[in-house]
Specification:
Elements: H1 8-18, E1 26-31, E2 35-42, H2 45-53, H3 63-80, H4 86-93, E3 109-113, H5 123-132, E4 137-141, E5 148-151, E6 154-157
Parallel strand pairs: 3-4
Antiparallel strand pairs: 1-2, 5-6
Helix pairs in contact: 1-2, 3-4, 3-5
């Protein structure tokens, strides 16, 4: 997949962040063979958009590690914020769910990926940790069933 400026998925991700309400915090975790927090949750959407614009592809897909890194970043942000209820912080920081009042989750994770997890923590295992603290995880996959990449001169199938 191409990640040069103008790539459809890069432009779509930047557009998504650009359309969020100003008060929404958004962060960015990049993942290939490992997961890295490129932008902690912030209302500075331009910082996140710039980080998206600089994404490049890498080998492997560590989707579960990305969820775990996202949860850690969410925990740190919520622990530092005064706007979240004590119950919300407890649920996320202590990995226990105590939100029974129907309030919305304190965060949501959106995974944008071109393939199945091939490295690190299994994605289902990490998703269960997110579910345990009532942090929804949505996945957007892109690619085609007949997608291929060339690795060391060999064409390798990479369906989403």
């Amino acid at each position: 997949m191409s990640t040069r400026p103008g790539s459809p998925w890069i432009e779509a991700a930047k557009g998504f962040v650009g359309q969020l309400p100003d008060e929404f915090k958004v962060g960015l975790v990049a993942f290939d063979g490992s997961a890295r927090v490129l932008a902690a949750p912030t209302t500075d959407h331009q910082t996140v958009i710039a980080a998206i614009a600089n994404l490049t592809t890498g080998r492997s897909t560590a989707g579960g590690d990305a969820i775990d890194a996202s949860l850690a970043s969410i925990r740190a942000t919520l622990a530092a914020a005064d706007q979240v209820t004590a119950a919300g912080i407890k649920a996320v920081v202590n990995d226990t769910s105590s939100r029974t009042d129907g309030s919305p989750p304190p965060a949501t994770i959106v995974i944008l990926s071109d393939g199945a997890t091939t490295k690190g923590v299994p994605i289902l295992e990490a998703a269960k940790r997110a579910a345990a603290v009532e942090i929804p995880v949505s996945t957007i996959t892109y690619g085609t069933a007949t997608g291929t990449v060339t690795v060391q001169g060999q064409s390798v199938q990479v369906p989403p």
